[in-house]
Every structure is written in C-alpha cells, then in structure tokens.
Design a protein that fits this description.
The chain has 143 residues and is α+β, with helices and mostly antiparallel strands. The chain has helices at residues 4-24, 27-49, 80-88, 128-138; strands spanning 53-56, 59-62, 65-68, 72-78, 96-98, 106-111, 120-124. Helix 1 runs antiparallel to helix 2.
Amino acid sequence: MWSVSDCLHGGGWFGSLALAILAYVPLAQGLLVVGLFILAVAVVMFSYGRTAVRVSDDTLWVGRHSIEGRWIAGAEALDRTESLTVMSSGSSTRDFLMTRPYIGELVRVRLDDDADPHPHWLVSTRHASELAEAVSSISGGRA
C-alpha cells in the first residue's frame, strides 16, 4: 500500500511541475498543458492497473504474457508480509514481475523450464489463494 509520504511526494512533484509550467507560459496555455498531463497520467495509471490475470484451459495469462501449464511446477499464495519480504530481498533478479504497489498479495509461480530465463513469476492479485489454486490445477506437477 502507498504510505502518506508516497502520496505527499507524488503530490509535491506534480505541484512543482504545474507551478513551473504555469510560471513560464500564459495561463490558458499552461492550464491546457497541465490538464493534458493529468489526463495522460490518468490513462497510463488506469491501463497499468487493469492488467488482466487469468487462467484458461492450460495456460496462465498475465497481461500479454503467457505460459503453458506444462512448464509450471506449482504456485503459492503469499500474504502481505510474505510479499514484502519477497519483493525486498527474497526474490531473484531473474524473476518475472507483474506487481502493483497498491496490491499487497502475490502469487509465486514456480517454473520448470530450463530454457526460460525466469525461475519464478511474481504476480500481484487481490485473490491470491484463488489464483494459486487455479494455476496449480493446470501445472505439470513436476515440483
């Protein structure tokens, strides 16, 4: 979750940018630029937060990325505390990450594919246990 200092930092950054734009261009143009910037940030944040995570037939889909169940060795749901540990020091730099800072739970998907450079996929979700069960049901079970 975002802390108060994160929100203040983001708000301060945006306020500084808006003030700088409005100080150097006429008011109408400055308001237009600031408004377009707000719209662009909102679109990017909305599309980032709408990344689809689904399990269909024998494939795990995370956004536009997918992996077949035969290459999955297993999955485990991680609660908020475990997720923080994994994201801070408990993961490999080679792990595939699809995480969102405002979602506290993760699913760690273990892979069994020597050709894949990622030993795990770390996927944030609001329904970690349900996703872990669904992924485990399609896994090759070689763990």
